[in-house]
Design a protein that fits this description.
TIM Barrel; 2 domains; 9-stranded parallel β-sheet; 7-stranded mixed β-sheet; 20 strands; globular; binds dihydropyrimidine-2,4(1H,3H)-dione; binds zinc ion
């Protein structure tokens, strides 16, 4: 058998094993693993390097409308380029519905934005903002059947927040169709109440963003989302969990036998609310929701990763430029943290941060790293075993890492559309040097080699993890 490419001499790691082995690739697929594989058009020397499944970042926002006068800093070209440099071979952005819009039309619009503009593979989650009978009865089930097998619901934000009644209806559709529901868990009324009070007291700087949505706001909504899911008997994914108390709600739900999954993100390991205290508008660089918390919350999120409460480590990449009135600097006439767009960039730094802080510092194993950043994303969102592993028959989506390379994260190393990184100055050990998507290098030895449009749209299966606990039981 001959190959297009053999990656030779590296150490391969999957979610379960680490072994010395060559990887034979033909027609974009891994076709052999072993020694002495024979001839290939190209031999890639990976001696001293790690050969890992490419990162899958299942929580990113790209080219999403973000309010009047605000523009997201990444389009599909810049976001997927940046992701590739960060060792990712696939991202899952959202196709976001706004009230009154047809979900099918929204999906078409996002396909038009992404078409021919991606360096790596993409697949869309849906955001359900309008839980009308037509959307829930017709559009959503049809879209799930067409491979859009996960959707996010918000418990907060003007125009996005669903009532408990709407959440129950959406969860019922998920149960009936086998889709997975992702939940943004924060209490809308509590945030509005606290925001009004802070503003009335003249507390308008970016640091008050954190005070406007403290831990109980997230804990209560997490508890409520889990209770609603329990009523319907539907698995849910609580996304971007920031603290111990919300995490404990997930653990308690699980101990009752519920399928409650959790995701956390780099900002909850590396940042705290103190970062929002920067002078003038500097703190706006760290405004995201839920906000970064405190040292105990960071420790809790590490425990959650180590103990499996969190199966996913995603970036929640939601990029806005800093030095820009269409980004983090407030437009004329807007003077409060209320108007700072929520979200920070992170698709390029997610993997080096977890590798360095997790693997290099001994908090997690290399195999846990692979699971948390790639394999579990594929399993959770209906992509496995085509994506998320190094195995014969899988897509040749591979990141080659230098585990010893030292870098200091800095904006000058980034390849996306923002003008800052919230992780500036963090020293890391371990760096992705090359990224290959379906057998073709997109980044090679730190240089862009992929072509715009080389990334494909990937339709997804229903996730095994989305099956109810009691599938045979009827919803009363
Ligand atoms: N939720 C997200 O998932 N991303 C950015 C902002 C938000 O509230
Ligand atoms: Zn969210
Ligand atoms: Zn998000």
């Amino acid at each position: 058998m001959s190959f297009d490419t053999i990656i030779r001499g590296g150490t391969v790691a999957t979610a379960s094993d680490t072994f010395a082995c060559d990887v034979g690739i033909r027609d974009g697929k891994i076709t052999a693993l072993g020694a002495d594989l024979g001839a290939a058009t190209e031999i890639v020397d990976a001696s001293g390097l790690l050969v890992l499944p490419g990162g899958i970042d299942s929580h990113v926002h790209i080219a999403q409308p973000s309010g009047p006068g605000i523009v997201m800093a990444d389009d599909f070209a810049s976001a997927t380029r940046s992701a590739a440099f960060g060792g990712n071979t696939m991202v899952l952005p959202f196709a976001m519905q706004q009230k009154g819009e047809s979900l099918r039309e929204v999906v078409k619009q996002y396909h038009a934005k992404a078409e021919g503009q991606c360096y790596i593979d993409v697949s869309f989650h849906l955001i359900i903002a309008d839980a009308s009978d037509a959307v829930l009865g017709q559009e959503l089930p049809a879209l799930v059947n067409d491979g859009y097998t996960s959707f996010k619901v918000f418990m907060t934000y003007e125009g996005l927040a669903l009532s408990d009644m709407e959440m129950l209806k959406v969860m019922t559709v998920a149960r009936e169709t086998g889709a997975l529901v992702m939940v943004h868990a924060e209490n809308y009324d509590a945030i509005r109440f606290l925001t009004d009070r802070l503003e009335q007291a003249g507390k308008t700087e970016p640091k008050y963003h954190a005070a406007s949505r403290p831990i109980p706001v997230e804990r209560e909504a997490t508890h409520r989302a889990i209770s609603l899911a329990e009523l319907i008997d539907v698995p849910i994914m609580i996304v971007h969990v920031s603290n111990r108390e919300a995490m404990e709600e997930i653990a308690r739900g699980r101990s009752r036998g519920l399928k409650i999954y959790g995701e956390t993100c780099p900002q909850y390991l590396m940042l705290t609310e103190k970062d929002l205290e920067g002078l003038n508008m500097e703190g706006a660089k760290y405004v995201c929701s839920p906000p970064p918390r405190d040292k105990d919350s960071q420790a809790a999120c590490w425990q959650g990763l180590q103990q499996g409460i969190f199966s996913l480590f995603s970036s929640d990449h939601c990029p806005f430029r800093y030095d820009d009135p269409q980004g983090k600097l407030l437009p004329k006439g807007k003077t409060s943290f209320r108007w700072v767009p929520n979200g920070i960039p992170g698709v390029e730094t997610r993997l080096p941060i977890l590798f360095s802080e997790g693997v290099s510092k001994g908090r997690i194993t290399l195999n846990e790293f692979v699971a948390l950043t790639s394999t579990n994303h594929a399993k959770t969102y209906g992509l496995y075993p085509k994506k998320g592993t190094i195995a014969v028959g899988a897509d040749a989506d591979i990141a080659i890492w230098d585990p010893k390379r030292k870098e200091t994260i800095s904006q000058s190393l980034m390849h996306g559309g923002t003008d800052y990184t919230p992780f500036e100055g963090i020293a890391v050990t371990g760096w992705p040097v090359s990224t290959m998507v379906r057998g073709k290098f997109v980044v090679r030895d730190g240089k862009l080699t992929g072509k715009l449009g080389g990334g494909d749209y990937i339709s997804r299966d229903k996730s095994e993890l989305a099956k109810p606990v009691h599938p045979e039981a009827r919803i009363s």
